[in-house]
Known about the structure:
Number of strands: 13
Helix content: 10-25%
Shape: globular
Radius of gyration: 17 Å
CATH architecture of the largest domain: Sandwich
CATH superfamily of the largest domain: Macroglobulin (MG2) domain
Strand order of the largest sheet: 10-9-12-13
Number of helices: 2
CATH topology of the largest domain: Immunoglobulin-like
Strand content: over 45%
Structural class: mainly beta
Number of domains: 2
Amino acid sequence: MKKIIIIILLFSLFKVNLKAQYLYLLFKDGTSSQYDISLIRSITFSGINMNINKIGENTIPTPLNSIRYFKYLGATNALNETTTDLLKNDVSIYPNPSNSYIVIKYNTYEPSEINVNITDLNGKLIKNIFQKQNEAGNFKIYWDGNIEFKHIDSGIYICSITINKKTTSKKLIFTN
């Protein structure tokens, strides 16, 4: 099921009005790769591989079962998912899609006021997960919507993270 969702999400990069600067892949062995979207001709799938076809270079086959998660850096789309320059590399959410829990990882370079909200697509606040002052450093917030609400409905939500009055919003997909 996860492979199908990854395939659909990767395919959607080229079919939805999504603009991104980079495709970032984190592998299960802890290594990572980052690809400039403007240099990718296409992404295809054959058997168990995702093939990244770069312009003017060889195709890069990547086994799907080796990918821990992926994200688009510097992305905006029709859901008004935005990323400011200051935050684009400092916030990540995984697993995404998720069937219940999420990890929100963020970095601060100075003491910062942090606020994290989950809203539905209509802007209705589902949960203010976190609001406090942090020192500089790397942080993780773990949140399980099914524990808090007994059951979180499948669908698309928006996670907004504000660090010192600069906000980034990321699309979040919950599946049951």
